[in-house]
Amino acid sequence: MKAAAGLLALGLAAAGPARAEFLPLMPGPAEVTARHEAAFDSYVLALGPWRPTGQQTRRLEGRIDQSAWHLPGYEQGTLALLADLRDQLAKAGFRVLFECETDTCGGFDFRFAMDLIPEPEMHVDLGDFRYLAAEQPQEGRFLAMVVSRSPRAGWVHLTEVARQAAPDPAVPDSAAAVAPGQTPAEGQARPAAKPGTPAATPEGADGAAIGARLVAEGRVVLEGLVFASGADRLDAGPDADLAALAGWLKQNDWAQVVVVGHTDTTGSLAANVALSKRRAEAVRARLIARHGAPEARIGAEGAGWLAPRASNATPEGRARNRRVEVVLTSTRVGGP
After folding, report:
1. Where are the stretches annotated Disordered (predicted)?
2. For the chain, which has fewer Cβ within 10 Å, the N-terminal or C-terminal residue?
């Protein structure tokens, strides 16, 4: 029953550069519906159930590989599916850090606090899912796994983080979010720029323009940053507004800013405040790692869905509300 999945895993291993990655043997026919990859990014690993008072997590930085798997015709339950994959993790040297099922995880709020590839590539039944977090300490690798079901099918989502130091900020990372059938323009990594090459920005996205709006209005929406509903992972870019903001901050050492994340109204307020803060932290991390922005003068906070800029009653409005803004917190222009 594992032959087809085994051949698929071998194909994935041969498709990219050699690196340590957990490649599961699925219990039956399986297909990868989407893969998201980032050469360097941040990820928040859940290590406890979601509660209104908070959740135990661990923030990781390094190479991130995500994959969503569809198991057509799978008829066993999520317990059996997770048990099979847990055994494979143990053989690969991983140890379990935390494990839960639907209600003990925290149900709806736990699921929407997770960074998952969205529907239709990854399906999560809110009444039947299981989660597992594991660590491979010898190699500094962490893995988060979600398994769920739909009628006559199983679903598996894997996120693996290989910890590493930040890359040279002069060279952009090779973050990519690649789904089957995408072209390089839609999701593949951009070629790395040579050190010293100025970032390409569209008309109107230069640092002086963003700085002038910050001084005049106090806040600016950072356009072009794409988040799926329920996720805190940035797409590959380009990051025109981030490059411009970083340039302005480097030229104005008096300026203090806070990056503020906002969400749509999918899920509870507490879960969305946490999600929006992770989005802000992801943007802050990219400002620093990719664009060399001054770390000490940039904060990150989350507002959840408390400050919409459009109606949440339409898909277009919800997409506009999933945004990140930068707020100028300095009380004097040109001084402390």
Report:
1. 166-205
2. C
Q: Tokens 């802000």 belong to which residue?
A: 280
Q: What is the pLDDT of residues 205-230, one digit of tens each?
A: 477 889 998 998 999 999 888 766 56
Q: How many residues does the chain have?
A: 336
Is residue 144 a contact partner of residue 131, using CB atoms and an 8 Å limit? yes
| Strand 57-72, strand 153-163: pairing | antiparallel
DSSP string for 139-199: TTEEEEEEEEEETTEEEEEEEEEEE-PPPPTTS----EEE-TT--HHHHSPPPPPPTTPPP
51: DSSP letter: B
Closest CA to 9 of 115, 85, 80: 85
How far is the CA of 207 from the CAs of 50, 58, 123, 194, 224, in angstroms? Answer: 40, 34, 41, 21, 15
For residue 332, the model assigns a pLDDT of 83
Task: Delineate the domains of the chain, giving CATH numbers in brackets.
Answer: 3-163 (no CATH), 191-328 (3.30.1330.60)
With 0-12 CB in 10 A as exposed, 13-18 as middle and 19+ as buried, what is 265? middle
Task: State the DSSP H helix or E strand holding residue 326, giving kind and residue range, or none if neither.
Answer: strand 323-328
Full-prediction pTM beyond 0.70? no
Whether the CB-CB separation of 98 and 130 falls below 8 Å is answered with: no
Q: Are strands 298-302 and 323-328 parallel, antiparallel or unpaired?
A: unpaired
pLDDT at position 9 over 60: no
Give the tokens for residue 110.
């736990």
Place of tokens 């690196």: 19
Give burial (CB, 10 Å; 0-12/13-18/19+) of 150: middle
Query: Which residues, in sequence order, are CB contacts of 282 under 8 Å at separation 6+?
Result: 41, 42, 232, 233, 234
